[in-house]
Amino acid sequence: MTVVGSIAFDAVKTPWGERDRLLGGSAVHFALAASFFGDVRVVGPVGDDFGEEEYAVLHARGVNTEDIERVAGGKTFFWSGEYEYDLNTRLTHETQLNVFADFQPKLSEASRESDLLFLANIQPELQREVREQCPRTRLVALDSMNLWIETARDSLVRTIEGVDCVLINDAELRQLTARPNLVQAAREVMDWGPHTVVAKQGEYGAAMLTREGYFSLPAYPLESVIDPTGAGDCFAGGFLGYLAAHPDEDLSHDALRRAMAYGTALASFNVEEFGTERVQRLTGEEIAERVSELRRFTEFVDAPVPLRS
Amino acid sequence: MTVVGSIAFDAVKTPWGERDRLLGGSAVHFALAASFFGDVRVVGPVGDDFGEEEYAVLHARGVNTEDIERVAGGKTFFWSGEYEYDLNTRLTHETQLNVFADFQPKLSEASRESDLLFLANIQPELQREVREQCPRTRLVALDSMNLWIETARDSLVRTIEGVDCVLINDAELRQLTARPNLVQAAREVMDWGPHTVVAKQGEYGAAMLTREGYFSLPAYPLESVIDPTGAGDCFAGGFLGYLAAHPDEDLSHDALRRAMAYGTALASFNVEEFGTERVQRLTGEEIAERVSELRRFTEFVDAPVPLRS
């Protein structure tokens, strides 16, 4: 797998504490989550302040960092934000693009030949440039956000036309299509080209529409949520990771359903602690156990009942 | 089953149209939904303006109206409200208690001997008075709302202590317990007495905690939602109805899971048209088909994958 997206330092404040400088960014969260399933290559720029300690976190999970471009004299992307009491409302205090402002993605031969490509949430033009460098990729997935819908919608739609799968927040899916109904919104995006649309619903889970039908999975119920930052990218990492681990399998509705379960599991671990802390010491056994629990928490066997018409 | 709650006329405005005078009220929506599963008795007051046409809707579905108290010279409970663009935000324009202001519930012998009792959303003291008239009921369930949490919380908690099952909106469950975490909030309510807590999540579905564990079910995906009024009560009607149709079955986690599916199905039909219009011409076959679809939309079979720890 190859991921292009932000590599960042985050300052995060939640009702449970705050941290000044966490390793973060969509590409980092994706890569750590996906690393449980197969090889991952990260494409993106960092500054001089991105040091051995940060590389070590990625290398400890076997993530390939050859395509991380270190800009001499530059500063790494920085985000600071705050979550309110119920963690559903996020307030951005500051976004410093820094080295991202002039980023021109150049993929190595190895990254271009990846089986799967994830275009994490960055400028739609950059996503498109990367996508065009990978014509033979089996599956290209994309995330985006309200900023690009508001400032670069035409470019974003053009980028979406060239990908297979869109993973996006449900509110942003509605905003993107100007359709309040989720199913209608997903159908509209599929009309543009993608065969799969996943609407991420935060604490409620995620819903998916494919050409074969609908699937929905609640989030894993947690008694303690510490920091939601990166949950969506970990979801994408688990989702694409599962598909990457089955290179010979069709991208069938059944396989995509299972991918949803792995995405849900990875996202649930991510939010249990600040930044990448929980995923850094996660084990494969814990992931497998949580997927089994998710199945138990959502399955029911119908025992039909005589109904009075 | 017996239900005590409002019997109302509703004036509803949504982005898709408006109606001046719809038959509504929590007891009516519950009764129509539950009528597919067994006998239902409605307890509540109406005014002179509640006529043959309204009774006929209930009688057409076999609902017993002997305990509906007609107050001479009185006016039926009236609610008017409006839904915004995405139907998730509801604005109440007016609530006229009318005959409900002086309501003193008097249950007939037959209502007191019901197998299941639903205390729909009314003043907690009234709910408690009804509950105390039904000491032998197999399952007593309750709904409530922010108004009572804000104005009569102590009374509501005392009422909850005496019931088996609480069905409530997730935001109100958080408000009631002052706990932002849903699982913690549900546990706290269970500490007060109930063995089952269902958090209704609107378009996202519903989550349930019992002494045996957790279960969650997304809502049925609809491409057209016309009027969400009464969805929660139809959910309760399907949920309790399923349990009423299995009088000899333990209230096991498995049975409650299946009940969640029937509740979800009934709620989904309700919102497809204004007021009670869709449920009035619903058939048992349609309900069974939707429950099967819900199972298909949520089930996945895990195919374990080698995970790299």
Concise account of the structure shown:
Chain A is of the alpha/beta class and 309 residues long. Chain A is built from twelve helices and 13 strands. The model of chain A has no long low-confidence stretch (mean pLDDT 95).
Describe this structure as you would to a colleague:
- Two copies of one chain form a homodimer.
- With 309 residues, chain A is α/β, with parallel strands linked by helices.
- Helices cover 38% and strands 22% of the residues of chain A.
- In chain A, strands 5-4-1-8-9-10-11-12-13 form a nine-stranded mixed sheet, with helices on both faces. Chain A has a four-stranded mixed sheet with strand order 3-2-6-7.
- In chain A, a hairpin with a 2-residue loop joins β12 and β13 (213-217).
- In chain A, α1 runs parallel beside α9, α4 packs parallel to α6 (153-161) and α9 packs antiparallel against α10 (253-270).
- The termini of chain A are far apart.
- The interface between A and B is large, with 63 and 62 residues.
